[in-house]
Task: structure prediction
Amino acid sequence: MANNNNKQRPQVPQGQPGKPRRWMSILFYTIAFALLGFYLFGDKDGGVSKELTDTKLKAYIEADAIEKITVYDDANVKATVKPQKYSLVFGQQGIGEKADGQLKVRTASVEEFSKYITAINEARKQANQPAIDVKYEKSHDYWYVILMNVLPFALIIFFFIYMSRGIGNIGAGGGIFGVGKAQAQLFDKDKKDKVTFRDVAGLYGAKQEVQEIVEFLKNPKKYTEIGAKIPKGALLVGPPGTGKTLLAKAVAGEADVPFFSMSGSDFVEMFVGVGASRVRDLFRQAKEKAPAIIFIDEIDAIGRARGKSIMTGGNDERESTLNQLLTEMDGFGTNSGVIILAATNRADVLDAALLRAGRFDRQIHVELPDLQERKEIFQVHLRPIKMDDTVDVDFLSKQTPGFSGADIANVCNEAALIAARGGRKKVGKQDFMDAVDRIVGGLERKNKIMTDDEKRSIAYHEAGHATISWLLRWANPLVKVTIVPRGVALGAAWYLPEERQLTQEDHILDELCSLLGGRAAEQLFLSQTSTGALNDLERATKQAYAMVAFYGMSDKLKDVSFYDSTGRYDYGFTKPYSDKTAELIDQETQRIIADQMARAKKILEEHADGHHQIAQLLIDREVITSEDVESILGPRPWKSRGDELLEANAEAAAQAAPKKRSRKKKEDKSQTNDTDETNLA
Result:
């Protein structure tokens, strides 16, 4: 970071005792001590020895046992007994204990009691007797004082403390008084468990761009001396789990500057104007510590396009927060040293003003890892895991197509849990395969009871998928088939999808035919249909509709696409085509599905014996692999793209090896020549 004085603000953990609890304790202790002081020192006139009725007091007065009376405005009366009359009032047992000799009486009326005392004193005066000393004072009811003067303030303080505890997370450690402060997390460069670029496998292009940002912050003169300008902002875009936040953490670990991290949802709260205030405070903190990096995770929470909501008025608080963010991003100088990183998986919904040059200058696409990148990601997550010799990283990377970095991390952790659950000291290949099955298909439900007819129907259904996918060139090659229930599915088949950069019409048609293979087998061999094909029919219908409406792969709607990349039609009630065109799209979708269903039935009829053998093997063993299908239907004549990529990587490595050896020989030879020349000299 810039200097050692830039320390992270202390955060009050959620659910932990913090300032609100301390204030609550202080309030309670204050009230307790006040009550204790009132009890000890509140009654300066001495303690009350005895309480009695108005009539009894008058009797003592007429018996000349009272020498002094104090009348309060709240109808309370205190009377002091003459020492020589203690035995009359308190009895013989209380004479030594009642040194003050006071009585307390609650009269019905102060006026009536005053008239009575006045009459008594007049009578005493006529009889030449000393009059009773009478005083009239205001009441010293401390409970009344507390209730009327202290309690309202105590209730106000309690209300603020309650609000601070209820929404204490709104402010940055300051409760409601810090509601407009940014709650950004400040990463420390000296943190031991920090993430670096070494922990980020793959993502070559994305790492190159963010490394350039880090180098600019470390050595800005290298760029500014030749007139170059670093981008103000970089937007990380990609599917969930691909490593966008991890890449930002690596920037925080590599950059020797303050790194402020905040989620997009942290800006918007229940109070109006809080989001804009927090944006201002966040940029103020970053400018004070410049050079610095601001990272906003899930920026689509505040960066959605304005004016797209069908609700009148929209979300004004979110839009005002976005407006303030746009102003701050374009409000500081080009080389002020504050760079904004943001991450989202919904770049299509972001406001156009947020993506223009001068704000987010670069969009860094973080895609799903390919075969080689998955291999590197496995190597990163396998470091802390103890493995045996059966684990092959190349095999694992081939068996996890379409997996993100987060999925691969989950596979490694799940495999370790499975091995530990089985009492093994090391993780083996089968543990990883079970982990992949657990994540893709769900947990096995072997205790689920099925009838023989249900088991036979599921076996024929899954055998139909396996047979057609094995015989079609562009269908995803089979890995394993099971009729053991997993999750909500009664049966499942694992395939190895081809990692294509471009999908052709033949690819989609083969995949459609493979999807419909289960329903085709049920109709052809069992003369019935079941609800087990729901997921297959849903996926097939969506793919066929996409062929017609989006990709222009239809005979009657060629080279026409109704795909809306802006998302404008998602908020409206109309479609960008007429009712007649909609009817035509429905007809073409049904035609494509019908053609592929007929094609699937034809393939199954031609290979009925092989299908029946696969189905019977499933009934007997419940789980079969691609080797079992190959022994029945024969080997596939086409190589998968995964095998082609591995062969290409191995060939490239073999070609690079001689070059490295020859380069090393040349270096050794040059060193030898230098040595000879030195000796000759």
User: Anything to note?
Assistant: The chain has a mean pLDDT of 75. The CA atoms of residues 38 and 142 lie 7 Å apart. The radius of gyration is 43 Å.
